[in-house]
Design a protein that fits this description.
By secondary structure, the chain is mainly beta. It has one domain: 3-Layer(aba) Sandwich (VC0467-like). The chain is built from three helices and ten strands. Strands 1, 2, 3, 4, 5, 6, 7, 8, 9 and 10 form a ten-stranded mixed sheet that branches. The chain is globular, with a radius of gyration of 17 Å. Belongs to the UPF0301 (AlgH) family. InterPro entries: AlgH-like.
Length: 199
């Protein structure tokens, strides 16, 4: 269970099923520092739990500091990104493929044009097939029933992702931008302030 302060006075998110390729967008009242104002790409979700990558937490370290062979192949900026608070000593590569068919060597298609990268494969073989590539340290993980419980509490919005979400040069406004492109009342969350006096 995520240790969080009480969620603020915003309409609860509409119910939705977590699934691979969907985005979890943090409710504005989710104040846990690990997940405040985050956008998480779900890599998988099942009865056994869920795993995802936080897309909007660049780190100070560059890819060259930990995976120098991949440095020249990642999407700008060449920072590592913190994929979540779990397994920070491991890395996961995420790629955007130019088409929706097939799996080039070293790439495992997740959904649509999004693929997971085998970082042990030679980058000069993998990178030419990718239209975007990013490396994440750590990931976000939920045990059986944990994410469903957080969704029931209203901690997350589940929304459709767009292929470029994980590869933007500027990730600072990703949370707000993803909310604003929604066509439901979820978009209102982008204007929410954690201080109820100003809502």
């Amino acid at each position: 269970m995520i240790g969080r302060e009480r969620l603020g006075p915003l309409l609860p998110p509409p119910p939705a099923e977590p699934r691979a390729g969907a985005l979890l967008v943090a409710h504005p009242g989710l104040l846990d520092p690990n997940f405040r104002a985050t956008v998480v790409l779900l890599l998988n979700a099942s009865d056994e739990g869920a795993l995802g990558l936080v897309l909007n937490r660049p780190l100070v370290s560059d890819v060259v500091d930990v995976l120098p062979a991949w440095h020249d192949h990642v999407t700008e900026p060449p920072h590592l990104f913190q994929g979540g608070p779990v397994g920070l000593d491991s890395a996961i590569g995420l790629a955007r493929l130019p088409g929706d068919d097939g799996e080039p060597p070293g790439l495992k298609r997740l959904v649509g044009s999004i693929a997971v990268v085998d970082l042990d494969a030679p980058p000069e073989i993998v990178a030419p097939a990718a239209a975007g590539l990013r490396v994440y340290a750590g990931h976000a993980g939920w045990g059986p029933g944990q994410l469903e419980s957080e969704l029931a509490e209203g901690a997350w919005f589940v929304v459709e992702g767009e292929p470029g979400d994980g590869f933007r040069g500027d990730t600072e406004t990703l949370w707000r931008d993803v909310l604003l492109r929604q066509t439901t009342t979820v978009a209102l969350a982008a204007t929410y302030r954690s201080d109820p006096e100003v809502n």
